[in-house]
Write a structure and sequence with these properties.
Helix 3 packs across helix 4. This protein folds into two domains: 157 residues, Quinone Oxidoreductase, Chain A, domain 1; 128 residues, Rossmann fold, CATH 3.40.50. The strands form three sheets. Strands 3, 4, 5, 6, 7, 14 and 15 form a seven-stranded mixed beta sheet that branches. The protein has a six-stranded parallel beta sheet with strand order 10-9-8-11-12-13, sandwiched between helices. By secondary structure, the chain is α/β, with parallel strands linked by helices. Helices cover 23% and strands 29% of the residues. The protein is built from eight helices and 15 strands. It starts with 11 loop residues before the first strand and ends with a strand. The protein is globular.
C-alpha cells in the first residue's frame, strides 16, 4: 500500500540516532531532533530505511577533527520526498527515492526520521525494490564506481577485487564488467559460484594463498586491485609492477613497493553524483546488481546491527527502519 505523505512548511521533529562522543555502544542515544526545511537545491526526505555500514562504527571509534558531536551516523537512506526546496523540479512530494550523504555534514547523516540533502544526491528508487533494499545501495554503489574510476583501467585490462562475496565487491564487479574489464576475485569455496554470478571471470580461493593463485592465472600480476576486504599490503603481491592499489577506507601511511600506486576512495567528495546514482538504479533494474538485506532493525537496535556487520559474513547490509 502506497503511503500518503503531505508536505509540512517549516521545521519538523523526528527520531534520530546520535553519538554523544567517542566510545562504545554506550554513547549511542535515540533522541527527538528538529529538522530544518530544505533550502534552494535541497529536498527533505521522510526516511523509511537507512543503511548500516562499517563507517558508522568507525565514526564513534576514531577521532576526526571534522566530526562535531552529537552527530547522526549513516551514509545512505531510502524514503519519501516530504518537501522540496526552491529550484528543485525533478521531485514531487511523495516520490520514492534513495539518497547518499555523510555524517560529516552539519546536518549529520542518514539515520533519522527526516533528513535534508542536496537534490543532486537523490534519485528515484529502482523499480520493484523495497525501501529496505534500496537503503543499502547509494553509498556502497558510489564507492564502487569511484574505486573503478580511480583505477583508470580500460576495457580488456585486469582488475582484482578482494572480499569477492561481499556487498561492495558485488557492486564493484558488476560495474567493472560494464566497462569491459577482466575481473578476478577471491571467495570461500562454497561462495565461488555466487561470485561468478556477480560477473567475475575468475574466482580464486580466499586466504593466505590467494595472491599466488592470482599470479598463476596472471603471471605478470593484475593491472589494479580494489581492496574491499582491507587486506592492504597482503594483497600487493597480486599487483603488477607499477600497478594500482585502491583502498576503500582511509588508511595510515602504507609502504610502497615495486612502484605500486596507492589511491584511496573518499566518498564524501563524490556524493553529489546524480549520474552515478542513476546508473546504479539502472543496474538494479537490469539485474546486473541484486540488492540484499542482511537484517532489519529498529533505531533502538542500532548497536546490534553494527555488531552483526562487524562479525562479518553478511551478504547484504543491515538496515534501520524508521
Amino acid at each position: 500500500m502506497t503511503e500518503i505523505i503531505e508536505s509540512t512548511p517549516g521545521t519538523l521533529s523526528g527520531k534520530a540516532i546520535t553519538y554523544e562522543g567517542l566510545g562504545g555502544p554506550e554513547i549511542i542515544k535515540i533522541v527527538e531532533r528538529t529538522v530544518r526545511p530544505p533550502e534552494a537545491g535541497e529536498v527533505r526526505i521522510r526516511v523509511k530505511a537507512a543503511g548500516v555500514n562499517p563507517t558508522d562504527e568507525l565514526l564513534r571509534e576514531i577521532e576526526n577533527s571534522t566530526v562535531r558531536f552529537p552527530v547522526v551516523p549513516g551514509a545512505d537512506a531510502a524514503g519519501l520526498i516530504e518537501s522540496v526546496g526552491p529550484g528543485v523540479s525533478r521531485f514531487q512530494v511523495g516520490d520514492e527515492v534513495m539518497a547518499a550523504l555523510t555524517a560529516y555534514r552539519p546536518d549529520g547523516g542518514a539515520q533519522a526520521t527526516y533528513i535534508v540533502v542536496p537534490a543532486s544526491s537523490v534519485v528515484s528508487m529502482p523499480k520493484g525494490t523495497t525501501f529496505e533494499q534500496a537503503a543499502g545501495l547509494p553509498m556502497n554503489g558510489l564507492t564502487a564506481l569511484r574505486a573503478i574510476e580511480l583505477t583508470e583501467l580500460k576495457a580488456g585490462q585486469v582488475l582484482a577485487i578482494t572480499g569477492g562475496a561481499g556487498v561492495l565487491a558485488h557492486y564493484t564487479i558488476a560495474a567493472a564488467k560494464k566497462l569491459g574489464l577482466t575481473v578476478i576475485a577471491d571467495a570461500k569455496p562454497e561462495e565461488s559460484d555466487l561470485v561468478r554470478s556477480y560477473g567475475a571471470n575468475f574466482v580464486v580461493e580466499r586466504g593466505d594463498g590467494f595472491t599466488d593463485a592470482i599470479r598463476r592465472q596472471f603471471p605478470g600480476g593484475v593491472d589494479a586491485l580494489i581492496d574491499t576486504a582491507v587486506l592492504v599490503t597482503k594483497s600487493f603481491p597480486a599487483i603488477r609492477n607499477g600497478g594500482i592499489y585502491i583502498a576503500v577506507r582511509r588508511l595510515s601511511d602504507i609502504s610502497k613497493e615495486r612502484d605500486i600506486q596507492i589511491k584511496m576512495v573518499w566518498v564524501p567528495d563524490v556524493l553529489e553524483n546524480t549520474k552515478g546514482l542513476d546508473l546504479l538504479r539502472e543496474m538494479v533494474e537490469s539485474g546486473e546488481i541484486e540488492l540484499k538485506v542482511a537484517g532489519v532493525y529498529a533505531p533502538e537496535q542500532v548497536a546490534d546491527a553494527q555488531l552483526a556487520l562487524a562479525a562479518g559474513g553478511l551478504r547484504g547490509r543491515p538496515v534501520i527502519v524508521f
